[in-house]
Amino acid sequence: MDSIVVGTAGHIDHGKTALVKALTGHDTDTLAEEKKRGISINLGFTGFQLPNGRTLGIVDVPGHEKFIKNMLAGATGIDAAMIIIAANEGIMPQTREHIDILSYLGIQKFLIVLTKIDLVEEDFKELVIEDIRSFIKGTFLEGTKIVEVDSVSRTGFDMLISELETLTSDIRERSFTKKPRMNIDRVFSVKGYGTVVTGTLMEGILRTEDELMVYPQGILTKVRNLQVHEHNVDLAYAGQRTAINLSNITVNELRRGNTVAAKDGVYITDRIDVRFSIVKSTKLEIGKFYKLKLYTGASEEVARFVPITHKKVKAGDEGYAQILLDHEIAVLKGDRFVLRTISPVTTIGGGVIIDPKALKYKNDPGERLRSLQIKDSASDKEIVEEYIKNNPFSDFSKISAFLNKDIKEEELKELEEEEIILSIEKQYIHMEYLAHYRYMLEAVLRDYHKNNRLRKGIPKAELLEKLDISNKKQCETMLKYLAAKNQVKLEQNLVSCCDFEPVLTEGQKKIRDELKKRVMENGYTLLTAAELTENRKERQQVLEFMLQSDFLVLPGQFILMEAQYKKAKDLAESLFFEKGIIKLPDFRDSIETSRKFALMLLERFDQERFTRREGEDRVLNTKK
């Protein structure tokens, strides 16, 4: 890995900025107020080259309690951390809080740097070191190397550089194959260039002219220029501190906490499922909907905490929760977060996001917990299965984005071969979802057939409403699939069970014959449905049955037989070949009816494009 990012952490005035300047030759205090007050308010960025040739980027974060949110913004995305402790003061309140924050951010590489050793006697320094070792005993920092330095004389710096090289030698390379993503921790304008944002490129590769989206706003922009450690580059890689000059966007449209990423490269959400842990030092008890501040990436948002594994969360507790945010954030599965109280402000806990697009829970608590445990720590195969179960009709890109891992589409085929999931039109559903859908579908169809024994099937639009599935397009896709598998009949927009056929009783057959006879006797002097059925329910049901095969209906509810209609078409065709035109009076006389009914039939011919109008007359659309 060519570029590694190391962050500093520690109490105010413990020498973080002086240490960075002595290491790199650069002063990271850039604001006038920082120079004046002698403390870091904003984030400082610089870097230098290790003896092995790798670039070590350094994020110098503020130590003052009021500026901890800036520290959080800088600490996200770093690979390792130097915990700075001044020899003349030892461990202080912000030292403890910074260490808590670093643990929640998932950083696993640490170096403790004891600064200002020139200001204390040897005996006092040893007492401070003893105190540090006692403090970290039994924690994730136990065994961490302590390096002693003086930033003014540069005493101990050869050892510090050597330890940094050793510390970072086996840091895993970040993914270059994922879509690019960077959390914005600074926004400013440069004269002649325009809007610039900075951060650590979390994944992927960025190129000049790449199109990006600013989240959560959804603003499309383009990379005009790239810098890595103040040098113009054509490419920026995951793990590098990067400055992006963006086009077509103003400083006022951006803020720290936004994310720049490829289109569809992150989830925009206001509800996340998380695994959390709470600091052991708190006396606070956190119940359902307790308000906290959530920090993830470089964003800071007010959130409501909903414990799932606990009724009330206390010091040292670990478990699962759902977090509801006041505003949307851009995140992915596996992102780390920190929780802080609103007043008084203090770090209370943190954890990892296990579902960035969490659902409202309606199922029982046991099922909810089982689902969370799978999404948190199961194999990729089990996580994919659980995701598809809860998110039917997801395509491969959505599944891959949820996992936030580089997976191949072939990996889903094993689940298909085991008949756990099913692919329909390149979208995946779980077999449990298919079974549930078929159960609902069959229940609706059986009920419909029971109450409508003479109808061939339920109209598709009516079925979709009865199924009460919000996504009608997905519902139609399922219908087509089941019809193709002969598990349901789909004919002329009517849906029915495969084994259903409308059958007339002996009494209904007599009514059918009577209706046919009456229609035939009337010829083309048409009767309405009401006249034909005399508004009697059983006759209406038989007529409705016959409209599916024997009869058709014209405007005004006028009824005629399909055979009559075909005969009328044949007569119109004969007139055309005899006279080269179809005139209304001639057609009326040929079918022996009134002008009204003749015109009604001709207009039906026009609608079917059997004929077309030319003035008051008609011609055939296709000559024979």
TrEMBL record:
One of its GO terms (molecular function) is GTP binding. This is Selenocysteine-specific elongation factor. NCBIfam families: selB, small_GTP. GO terms for biological process: selenocysteine incorporation. Residues 398-425 form a coiled coil. Keywords: Coiled coil, Cytoplasm, Elongation factor, GTP-binding, Nucleotide-binding, Protein biosynthesis. The keyword Chaperone does not apply. Its main location: cytoplasm. CDD domains: SelB (cd04171), SelB_II (cd03696), selB_III (cd15491). It is found in: Cytoplasm. InterPro entries: Beta-barrel_SelB (IPR057335), EF-Tu_GTPase (IPR050055), EFTu-like_2 (IPR004161), Elong_fac_SelB-wing-hlx_typ-2 (IPR015190), G_TR_CS (IPR031157), P-loop_NTPase (IPR027417), SelB_WHD4 (IPR015191), Small_GTP-bd (IPR005225). Residues 1-172 form the Tr-type G domain. The lineage of its organism: Bacteria, Bacillati, Bacillota, Clostridia, Lachnospirales. It comes from the Bacteria. It comes from Lacrimispora xylanisolvens. One of its GO terms (cellular component) is cytosol. The keyword GTP-binding applies.
